[in-house]
Amino acid sequence: MELVINGLSKTYGNGVKALDNVSLTIPTGMFGLLGPNGAGKSSLMRILATLQEADAGTVMLGDLDVLNQKHEVRKVLGYLPQEFGVYPKVSAYQMLDHIALLKGVIANGERKQLVEALLQKVNLWEHRNRRIAGFSGGMKQRFGIAQALIGDPKLIIVDEPTAGLDPGERNRFYNLLTEIGENVVVILSTHIVQDVQELCNNMAIINMGQLLFAGSPSDALRAAEGHIWEKRISKSELEQHLAAHRVISNKLIAGSPVIHVFNSTRPADDFVPVEPNLEDVFFSHINGILNTTAA
Ligand code: ADP
Fold first, then answer.
1. How do strand 29-34 and strand 17-26 relate by DSSP bridges?
2. Ligand 1 atom 22: the closest Cα is on which residue?
3. Does residue 120 sit within a domain?
4. Nearest Cα to 219, choosing from 233, 232, 204?
5. Which of 163, 187, 215 is the last residue of a domain?
């Protein structure tokens, strides 16, 4: 099963073009949709989750026409939205039981078994009687995954799942995601490069509604190979380097700036070549320096 997106566009009433003719094929496994804030990721996720209309284009999940067979799609969809809305003052157990009922798990015995198994899976069993409102960010996200897994979904969409999680919570969440079956299309929308680096076999980069790259992370890295140069500078030199070179990142390391520059040849004697990382590739695309669609 594949998710095939073709020529998808969406313009909001205020004139913002959130998606501009996006075409993308997403295989099973973990797929990372990477883009800065405002890139159009949530708009795409909401359209795929049948919560919002597109203006043009088609989306097929296997034989299902996602834009027109919304009811059928919802039966095979697990969605973890960016904002889970109001956290209810009911226990995790009660809430999951309620969602399972809404999703059509009618038989009491079957539902009990499912809810218990999911709470164990996401490591919330011992907190099952606590109100979700009092959960930490990581616990809320794990609860979100539990509800998304009800009904044996074929398409799982998680929108910005690790924003606001501390490193420990993020790791627990990563581990949980990697346990989801390989035969499911899992789309992870994020602005955090590390999420994609650690989890995804395939990825896309979008910015301002446009698809800038689609392929594997190793394809992405290959495109930048031999083009990334590093230099440690003093703070007073930063301005001048920004003007003279295509600086794609600028980080403080032990108090002094270290810049990465994209160039096909050594920009100056005191630059050293470095292996590109995914962040270099991401910023090169976002800044319009790298131009590949190695789909
Ligand atoms: P991302 O998830 O990558 O941050 P979004 O899809 O939320 O991006 O937003 C893409 C663009 O569309 C942004 O410029 C945003 O301000 C705009 N936008 C998103 N939702 C709406 C809306 N309901 N009405 C008007 N503009 C919107």
1. unpaired
2. 12
3. yes
4. 204
5. 215
Q: How far apart are the first and last CA of the chain?
A: 18
Q: How far is residue 80's CA from residue 35's CA, in Å, rounded to a whole number?
A: 18
C-alpha of residue 76 to centroid of ligand 1, in Å: 26
Cα(224) to centroid(ligand 1), Å: 29
Co-location of 230 and 280 in the same domain: yes
Burial class of residue 23 (count of CB atoms within 10 Å of its CB; 0-12, 13-18, 19+): middle
Q: CA dist 116 to 97, 122, 230, Å? A: 9, 10, 52
Q: Which domain holds residue 119?
A: 85-148
Using CB distances shorter than 6 Å, the residues near ligand 1 are 12, 14, 16, 18, 35, 37-43
Last residue of a domain, one of 148, 176, 195: 148
Closest-lying ligand 1 atom to the alpha carbon of residue 159: 2
Note the pLDDT tens digit of each residue in 86-135: 667 889 999 999 999 988 899 999 999 999 999 998 999 999 999 998 89
Q: How confident is the model at residue 295 (pLDDT cuts 50, 70, 90)?
A: very low
